[in-house]
Design a protein that fits this description.
Two copies of one chain form a homodimer. Helix content of chain A is 76%, strand content 0%. By secondary structure, the first copy, chain A, is an all-alpha fold. Chain A has two domains: 9-60, Homeodomain-like (Arc Repressor Mutant, subunit A, Orthogonal Bundle), CATH 1.10.10; 70-213, Tetracycline Repressor, domain 2, CATH 1.10.357.10. In chain A, helix 1 (14-38) crosses helix 4, helix 2 crosses helix 3 (52-58) and helix 7 crosses helix 8. Chain A is elongated.
């Protein structure tokens, strides 16, 4: 992910919008490097080359700024995944589509930046529950909701046999994401699988899922 | 989990062993309450009612003490799970045994104390990789290794059809643990399912797993 993708998609145009974007980019760098408690609004202002007053004008507090950074970063990754999901249920080959989706999601989510953001949010989840909620909603929550819609549509069309699309979507999500995301949380970025291993993992996950939820025969 | 179970199983007997255990229990409380950076060896010594010198005699540094606490807490939970696993492959009904195992593992792992320990370790995983490794080895790593042995034994005995027991064990582990553990990480302890919901989740997970890995027919 490049620095620019940290900013939210719909932002005010013009000078104020550019400043907001510069602050979000700067805050992402500072928070990821220094942690939540270690980061200061002074550091963010200096990095964004704006006054501290401007930072507070755009974001009322450090917590509000952190929530905005989390939403922007997970939103940017989520948007990419979401573009895939919206088309899924209309495709005719669930096995092929789910494999492409799984590989895409693994590739988009398993970046050192997003894994570090996730560690940071989890580490502060007790003190700042809004952060965990923002990451959940923009991340797994959104992916699972989209998958559930695709599964319902495929079942309507007779291509899958799923009674509870929400439960099935959660199963699929965690079959695909559970191992690599949790390994990255505990064992660090070196545990992020290389593309060939990610592909094998995606193939395996789809096979297990379809054995349980595919149409018989 | 009671306070006492924090201590390691095999400890030196006598006065020194009792002190070590008191320090580990005190350190668990302090770290869980104050975080890693917020905790001091003075606080631990005061809580354990020993001198700071005694704390350093038993554990050379704050990091070493934290690693010992993580190992002891995950070890205590892991021991319970491990007693289940050792017997699994010799049982005759994989469906029944896997359901009992899944329920047991969910119940043992999804406690507010272990979830808070996990958040703390993940939050510090970059600065202190040894903590993440200790939690992984005592937690998912150990569970997956034990399950792989059971799956290999059941396949030898013709009760399951599993080519790669390690991959299958990871699938089973994350089908069962992925959703509730990750929800607890991001959404807090209120997201920990009640026993009836945990049971439904265990039933669902075992059904999906056996659809993929059970013997046909």
């Amino acid at each position: 992910m490049t620095k620019a993708t940290v900013a939210t998609k719909r932002e005010e145009p013009g000078r104020s919008g550019r400043k907001r974007r510069a602050i979000l980019d700067a805050a992402a760098e500072i928070f990821l490097r220094q942690g939540y408690l270690g980061a200061s609004m002074d550091d963010v202002a200096a990095q964004a080359e704006v006054s501290k007053q401007t930072v507070y004008k755009q974001f009322v507090s450090k917590e509000a700024l952190f929530v905005a950074v989390v939403s922007a970063m997970t939103g940017a990754a989520g948007d990419e995944v979401q573009r895939e999901i919206a088309r899924l249920g209309e495709q005719d080959d669930p096995a092929k589509e789910l494999l492409a989706y799984a590989e895409r999601q693994l590739t988009v989510v398993l970046t050192p930046r997003l894994m570090q953001l996730r560690r940071l949010v989890i580490g502060e989840a007790n003190r700042f529950p809004a952060l965990g909620r923002a990451l959940y909603d923009g991340g797994p929550g959104r992916a699972i909701a989209g998958l559930a819609m695709a599964f319902a549509r495929w079942t309507e069309r007779g291509l899958l046999a799923i009674e509870d699309p929400g439960a099935a979507a959660s199963h699929f999500n965690w079959l695909v994401m559970g191992e690599p995301v949790n390994n990255a949380m505990l064992l660090g970025d070196e545990s992020i699988p290389k593309p060939a291993a990610l592909r094998r993992h995606a193939v395996d996950s789809v096979r297990v899922f379809l054995a349980a939820y595919g149409r018989p025969g």
